[in-house]
Amino acid sequence: MNAIKTSFLSLIILAVACSSPENTGPSLFNKLEAEDSGVSFKNELLFDEEFNIYTYRNFYNGGGVAIGDIDNDGLVDLYFTGNRVSNKLYKNLGNLQFEDITDKAGVSGQKAWSTGVSMADINGDGFLDIYVCNSGDITGDDKQNELFINNGDGTFSERAEAFGLADKGFSTHAAFFDYDRDGDLDAYLLNNSYKAIGSFNLQKNERPVRDAVGGDKLYRNDNGKFVDVSEASGIYGSIIGFGLGVTVGDVNADNWLDIFISNDFFERDYLYINKGDGTFDEVLESSMRSISQASMGADMADINNDGSPDIFVTDMLPETDQRLKQVTTFESWDRYNYSVQNGYHHQFMRNMLHMNNGDGTYTEVGRLAGVEATDWSWGALFFDMDNDGLKDLFVANGIYQDITDLDYLNFADDEDTKVNAINEEGVNYKSLIDPIPVTPISNYAYKNGGNLNFTNQAQKWGLGDPVHSNGAAFGDLDNDGDLDLVVNNVNAISNVFENKANEQLTNNHYLKFELKGKDKNTFSIGTKILVKAGDQQFYLEQVPIRGFESTVDPRPNMGLGAIEKVDFIEVTWPDGKVTSLKDIATNQTVTLNWADASDIKDSPKLMVQPIFTALDASKIIEAVHKESNYVDFDRDRLTYHMVSNEGPRLASADVNGDGREDLYIGGAKGFAGSIYTQSSTGDFGETKQESIKDNYLSEDVNATFFDMDNDGDQDLFVASGGNEFGVGSIQLADRLYLNNGKGSFSKVEDPILNANRWSTSVVITNDINGDGFTDLFVGSRLRPFLYGVPAPSFIYLNNGKGGFEDATNQIAPELKDLGMVTDAIWNDFDNDNDLDLIVVGEWMNPTIFENNDGTLTNISNQAGTSSFKGWYHRIEASDVDGDGDTDFILGNHGLNSKFKASSTEPIKLYVNDFDQNGSAEQIFTRVIDGKNLPYTLKHELQVQIPEIKKRYLKYASFNDQTMEEIFSPAQLESAVVSEATHLATSIMINNGDGTFSITALPVEAQFAPTYAIAMADFNGDGTTDILLGGNQYRVKPQAGRYDANYGVLLIGDGTGGFKAVSKAKTGLSINGEVRDFLIREINGEKVLLVAMNNEAIKAYKF
Known about the structure:
- 11% of the residues lie in helices and 35% in strands.
- By secondary structure, the chain is mostly beta strands.
- The longest helix has 9 residues, at 333-341.
């Protein structure tokens, strides 16, 4: 009995699988009642003492839907799979009325637990067959999958054994497609491991080891017999495969169908690239930088009309603050790294929207698009709900019982609960299951507004009723040119939604396609359709088996917005032949026959020369930055982003007087910075600098060369920063090294530098007082061990005697406690012939200090920048609009983040020693509907402030609490409070009258935090362009790392406008965390040097 009790918590763990606009006017979708449609299918799951959520982890995964015309009468029919109820087939009678013909057709299924359903013409006779996946672990049931072959007379015969498809694994779904292009349909069978989650040793990655029964399988169709070719084809089929989604499409435009597999639990997803020789390359880790943690359903389609299919994957992150705090726990930093180190890639709990870059890589933009949090989600479908020419996104979600509810888990782990539930006779599962909360959540319907802008219209469109949904499929049930929607629910009647776009949105048009196949591929699976009209293009792929456990209408339907006639249609058939049409009117069905297609005419491919070409940087400079292993979160446990990895920056000057620019590259804690001198051949060699090496314990964040002592050579100032050192640490003292004129440096012990031991972020030079000696602005990043408390910055005047004087109080007293400075620039923005100072930082607005006769005054309020408080990392200057004054580029956090901020709903940071234990806590909050709510979860906060656990015994009592309710007025009044209102990387246009206008740069500039900016005419058109680099990997898992910047190039138009160049056209694919750019001419070529955190220098010519 004790053993049973001890394993109780493990049992709970093993049981776990992995903004509503106002409703105005008629809904786009009309929900048909069962008595009207005749569709009354209900996937009912009742309590079973032997088989339940505790004994079978996928108990609430639900069933699928298939839409297809099984009798070729021109009307698509419906098939539903049930878990403990019989599957159902409904014949479409027309007028959105259906008849249950299950028994007559003989397709109810004989197995105990059905999951996914695939409709495809498997035997190539022109009639759709039905393949049903079976799973569960029910006594007496063999879980054998079923294949119902269509007899063409309204009946079906079960033939799985005969076709070789009677798999007995825990099957989820099967995709039928012609992977080898031999004219018949092959199959990818997705299975879910039967092994208990807690029984795996993650250090022993079993991905390469095949599991003959439970692993995924690729079946080749050999004349009607399906043969397992998984191993020879390079398909994983291991015991750690927890497949919940199989998605097929041509991701690399080579006309061979590829495969994306979404895996639940700890195993990563797979992306298989079809090599065209019967084998696949699995390339996920080189293609996708971040993936979902508990991947479930997925879909693939072209969401931005660039001709490349993008991929969306569902997970289980709640959207609302209150629900997130009730049901969610996140991995720790250590646990996340443990998974990465053991080969499971970078996984985070959120939906992922992988935007196809057209070069074999993806940019993850789910947070930017606003589609990352849809609760416990299953089916995902891209289709144009309103026929406006942009594919919208439907997400079916809901777990019937909240098995991750944190109050419930505490209840289940309580000793009294264990005693009551477990006895000598076994476990009383009913006493454990009845208390699990039931919380229906509405599905999501995101309208695609273009430019990666998605808004949830579920309520407005009539799809927002709370429910527990799983599989879903779209199809034109009434043949009116818009796509209707069918959803399979748990413990509720399935939904049939009639799309009314044809009636309500009469200015939006469509084209439907009937594709007549050949050989055994009668529905032309794998066909690609490209439509062009003016400068617009639209793209679809014919792969009906998609979403979660489901199959959609096999007649492609393309929304076209206001277009009444398209210029060009190009249909590429699976064998590469093409059918082309011109000047086709919309609002019609276009019937095309594969047999009529033509061979592709050979024409030379237009080769576009990329703007940048990668160089072998090691032949230019062998410099590798190595970051320390310091973990900020071990001390600052409630923060989300590390500060200790923000270097290195590059400094350049001719240090040895040979007329060539040399480099200083800073080192992280434990690794000294180095000076590299340039040779006559353009390469750089490291020089011995013992004085610099002696300071290897400091973190070099910034550096600059200048002639400190006016002796005609370049001396070096190194800014010591980072977040590793405590108050008063000598490692935080900035350093001055004097040059002997030959490139050899020795450290100067300056009392001012030694005394000011802050964490420095930036140093910039200017002769502030006009005495002929170079002075410095030194910006502080933070107060040691007090992240969030503003730090002082300084003006150091060169005393002309080899040292500095701190003149901050005399010249710029407002620099005291200025903030968490990250960058600064001297610039005469007002054209009065002296240099003003502009400073940016975290939790700061762009701060404008006007130079008035050597005194710096903060004029940000007058300049119009004070309300733009952000998390800035970089500033650069250039006259981008050609009006003769200087404008500025502001590198900010970006918008592809869980953190959202505006002037009305800012992010706030409270810093205080709330529990008076001698260490400060940092609490991030967000304002939602006027409420100031902490991001911090209860279990995170109570570890730092134990009083929280006493005050809030249950999560439910904490989850809607504001900061003002959690803490006393005295605690809040004594806190240091900062806020951010603007997170977009932006352009700050100089209006020429002492004011500035700040506007966000294009959406591509918002993909990740910007740490590096280069300004140049990169494409040779005579105007200034912007290159942005960045990324930040050392981020708490609940925020998820920022990795979507490969190098973003924005082409300027000379008037202040910018347009992004596609990644494939730039030639840039910078992998890692960029910290600085430097453009230099080397051997007659313009070269971009890229400083990386924890990596070698990279180089590109342009």
